[in-house]
Task: structure prediction
Amino acid sequence: MDDFFAKMKKDLGISLNDVQKKAVLHTEGPLLLLASPGSGKTTTIIMRIGYLIKQKGVDPWRIKAVTFSKASANDMKERYVRFYPDLQPADFSTIHSFAFEVVRNYHRQMGISFRIIEGEQELDENAARDENIQMNKKLILRNLFKSIVGENITEDQMEELTTYISYIKNKMLPREQWSTVSCDVPKAEQIIIQYEEFKRADQNHILLDFDDMLTICNEVLESNENLLRLYQQRYDYILTDESQDTSLVQHSIIEKLVSNHKNLCVVADDDQSIYSWRGAEPAYLLEFKKVYPEAVILFMEQNYRSTQDIVKVSNQFIKRNKNRYEKNMFTENPLYKPIEISNLINFKEQSKYLVKELQEEEDLKDIAILYRNNSSSIGLMNDFDRAGIPFYMKDADNRFFSHWVVQDILNFMRMAFTDKRLDILEKIHLKFNGYISKQQMNALKQLNTNDSVFDNLLKHVKLQEYQVKLLKASQETFKEMKEMKPLKAIRVIRDRLGYDKALEKTCKNLGFRIDTLIGILDTLEEIASDLESLEDFAKRLRHLEAVLKRAKRMKGQNSVTLSTFHSSKGLEFEKVYMIDLVEGIIPSSEDRTETGLMEESTRLFYVGMTRAKKQLKLISYDYRDGKKAEESLFVADVKNIINPPDLSSPKGIITQKNIRIKKEIGASDREKVNGVPYNPNAIREKEAIRAGITVVHRVFGTGEITNVNEEFIQIKFPSKEKKLSIKACIDMGLLELKKKENL
Ligand code: ATP
Ligand code: MG
Result:
């Protein structure tokens, strides 16, 4: 046994600590390993597999290592191969792929055929016409929504509805309780009831989505003795990583599989639970002893991954959550560089800044750029591609290029080249201010000429009086557009042709999120900004779409990783940039409405921070597309942790001097801001202003803050108490913290 650990140390340079060793050695019976990020959970699981195979002679295929995404299954397999290049791999898989096997086996035995209605063959227009793919989950839901609610389902509603269904299934809620789950989609309960019936309408040929795979697998293992025995006998050891994201139905499947030997090793960190919206059940871990009274529970708090700078701040940061196991992550790793916080002047600077930073790097492989929403990647991709910076994107999102807003803009541009195509007009006639009605479109279709659609409308179709002028103007605008630079053209489409207004109306009617759509238009403008012609623009979009496809295959090459926070779970990089850290994104406005959501986005931020081994850089900005953006509350939190406003920071924690806040202020601004001399020590964040602290006001001198509300602070100066505008104090840099030693 000691030989095993000694060999591991010699071969891999990893000397396991006592708890890790215990976890490796405790092979028989249930074990729960609750541990902080970077404490070696995954490492321990892999070592345990090695130990089972090498020391205990277990057949690799009798060890099942369950992960909850394909990516983590691959990541684990890769690490395993690195650790034990000579050993056969254990059975690494996702819970879904295991469930699929059980479901397939069961249906085969029962002589029932089935079709999976979710997955790779996601919807696009062509697929929708394919008869087989008519049985796609989203199409079915779309049709049900239409027939039950009487309207077209919006993308947001679809997302909400599928999440609602997953949630119900993963929580194993019985039908009576479906109505207790809140869902903003009208008649959601009725829709799911009919959806379930629809899938089972043909008893000999049923339809299954991914959630069914889990629930049916669980039911089969419950009711079918033979199959239960078959799978129970197949594995002698089961291990699950990232178990904080396991749902009840998944736990239940695993419980059944191990119920004879109970050789189960569960590894989790409740602070990294980021899938509760999909029905993950971290609270199950609290019950572990109830399910397995003989279980051993081990805790690990030592982080081996990150520098002291990162570990200390992250550990403090996660404590803003109240609903958690109390833990204290620590590290023996040295200090290296403080967390860097950049507050850029605007959104555009962000990718410029990243390009500049990355151009100075020799090896991009160990660098990641993390963001909350996939949409953050498109603009980056455009700039990185231009700068020749190779990147890898695991969950590249092709939806941007096929999004209807992008298609609309391209159709407007096509119209600029020829205004004879009725098919194009048909697609956009409701989206600009010609106000062409359905009847008018129909009348137009009856004409069989190859003239300009506008000429035809004006000559042959009955129009409202106000339309005549508008249509003439639009016709002119489209003509002019042909020669415009694409950025100008997009602006003209949005303003002069009234596309933005039309979008607003669509949003009101159909419940789309206007911000998302405007975001897409802004991204298109960014892409267009340095292009000369409309053709170039269309070409550029096609090129970027190809680049995106390629980006999925760039893994392991000298390329920077772009990833969402969610997909970065379990991974580590030398250097991590967390970007778009502004209010509305993280936390989102929805997060702000509920403690549970707020805590989940805190955990998401924490997952991001704890990916970094050596350097962590947080980026926010003041403006985006001309609108004021506000630094994320979480960044403000990190600042406060690094540099507590009352300056009572103990030695060893980074102080004001070495935290680099890059406020990009022009040289002249530095000297005077709003006519007031620039004070580098002035309080610049609202969060730093709290009742009870002592400040120095540039004009009134030293005083104590007695009250703070949204807009005003009250400060008690020796002569009198004053009420001042917070905004003015911050913008003009009027306040400074009174240093402790001077008090
Ligand atoms: P996460 O919560 O992010 O999934 P984790 O707990 O699974 O993290 P690992 O990825 O296993 O952590 O380990 C983090 C890093 O620490 C890895 O680089 C690993 O090699 C290293 N490590 C783990 N244990 C030790 C140890 N005992 N000595 C030295 N390095 C270690
Ligand atoms: Mg891990």
The chain is about 45% helix and 15% strand.
